[in-house]
Design brief:
Shape: globular
Radius of gyration: 20 Å
Strand content: under 5%
Number of strands: 0
Distance between the termini: 41 Å
CATH architecture of one domain: Up-down Bundle
C-alpha cells in the first residue's frame, strides 16, 4: 500500500473510535461545576471524572506494544463481524486467530525469563504480524473488508511492529 501521508497515533485513535462507533471527543473531560451566588469556589463540589477504564491506555501498567496489539486484535474482531458469511470460516477466522496469536506470543515473551526463549516468542509475534498483514490483504482482495479497514489495520500492524522491534533490540542489549 503506497500512502505518502504520515499518521500520528492520535489520528489512528480517531479512526478506530470512528470505526468502533464511539462518540466524538471520547476523551472525556468533566464539566465545570457552577459557582455559588457570590462567585466564590467554597461551595463547589469535588468529584472524580467519569472514566471508562476499558478504553484507557494503561501506560503505567503495560508496555505500549501490548496496548497496540490488543487494540489491533479488538479492531480485527469488530471489522470481521460484518464480513460476508461465505468468508466466516476461512479468511475471517484466520484474521481473528492471527490477531490473537500476536497478543498471545507477546504475553509469553513477557513472562519468559530465558533470553533465547523470549526472543523466540518475540520472533513468533513478528511472524504473526506478517501473517495478519497477508490475511488482511487477502480479505480486502476478496472484499471481506473494505479498503479503509485494511488501511487502518495496516497502520496498526506497522505501529505494533515498530514497538515490537524496539522491544527486541532492548532485549538483546540487556547485560546478563
Amino acid at each position: 500500500m503506497s500512502d505518502d501521508r504520515q499518521f500520528t497515533i492520535e489520528d489512528l485513535q480517531k479512526e478506530i473510535e470512528k470505526e468502533l462507533g464511539l462518540p466524538e471527543g471520547f476523551g472525556y473531560e468533566p464539566p465545570q461545576l457552577p459557582q455559588n451566588k457570590n462567585g466564590t469556589e467554597e461551595d463547589r463540589v469535588s468529584r472524580k471524572p467519569f472514566r471508562i477504564s476499558d478504553f484507557d491506555c494503561p501506560r503505567d501498567k503495560e508496555m505500549a506494544v501490548f496496548t497496540h496489539a490488543k487494540k489491533l486484535s479488538e479492531y480485527v474482531f469488530v471489522v470481521t463481524e460484518k464480513s460476508p458469511k461465505k468468508f466466516r470460516w476461512s479468511i475471517t477466522t484466520r484474521l481473528q486467530n492471527a490477531s490473537v496469536d500476536i497478543v498471545e506470543n507477546l504475553y509469553r515473551a513477557n513472562f519468559e525469563r530465558d533470553e533465547e526463549a523470549r526472543l523466540q516468542y518475540q520472533k513468533n509475534a513478528g511472524v504473526a504480524l506478517s501473517i495478519l498483514d497477508f490475511y488482511t490483504e487477502t480479505a480486502r482482495t476478496k472484499q471481506a473488508i473494505n479498503i479503509r479497514q485494511m488501511s487502518i489495520i495496516a497502520r496498526q500492524i506497522a505501529e505494533t511492529r515498530k514497538l515490537l522491534n524496539g522491544w527486541v533490540k532492548a532485549t538483546k542489549r540487556k547485560p546478563k
